[in-house]
Amino acid sequence: MRMTFLVCVTTALAFSLLGCSAPAEQHDTPAPTEDTSKAPAEQTSADGDFSFAHIKSCDDVEPFVSTWVEGLKPYDWNSVSETDIHCGWDTPPEDVTPDNARSVEVRFAAISERPDYSPLEGMAGFERVSDEWVTANNGDAFTMTVDIGISAVIGTTIWVPGVEVTVSGGRWANLPELDGPAGLEIAKQILAS
Q1: Which residue has the higher pLDDT, 36 or 131?
Q2: What is the structure's pLDDT at 63?
Q3: Are strands 103-111 and 126-128 parallel, antiparallel or unpaired?
Q4: Which of 17, 28, 90, 136 is the most exposed place for a label (fewest CB within 10 A)?
Q5: Quick one: where's region Disordered (predicted)?
Q6: Contact at 8 Å (CB) between 137 and 20?
Q7: When comparing pLDDT for 34 and 71, which is higher?
Q8: In terms of residue numbers, what domain contains 86?
Q9: 38 located within any domain
Q10: In angstroms, rounded to a whole number, what is the distance separating the alpha carbons of residues 122 and 96?
Q11: Which among 172, 183, 154, 148 is positioned nearest to 15, based on CA atoms?
Q12: Closest CA to 124 of 1, 11, 5, 2
């Protein structure tokens, strides 16, 4: 189920970006504009699991992706529940041009047991993400990239006990990439907020 969801999301994002312009120059990933009160490694619940219960709407997620969603419209079907959060933004249809067709998604799922990501390892674009914070929290992380030449769709998934976070973005002209390292930092900062 997880693999099917990730493949569908990555493929859908790839098709939505077919009209994007050439790859942008390498940029440093900016930090989200909102400060967090705790370091990510400090944020756990009493039973050792992470939680996203503090997120009440996609407005709580938006500050962490503000660099990439400026000028984008929230999806009509964004949703927040106790077990799942799906927040997405894309270019309004009336404003889509080859230079600005983009979308960004952040998804949370309550998953206590470590998912088996091994079936994805043989897929093109799969790359494990090494991160001290993920390792210290007994987690797992990977990136799936679909490079279509003129742009790329990049989905980063992080699992720590209790929560799986997927940040989907990509590579666009005139914006920093929303790639694996950026997606990982977004997930860590949201979990620590």
Answers
A1: 131
A2: 97
A3: unpaired
A4: 28
A5: 25-45
A6: no
A7: 71
A8: 2-18+49-192
A9: no
A10: 34
A11: 148
A12: 11
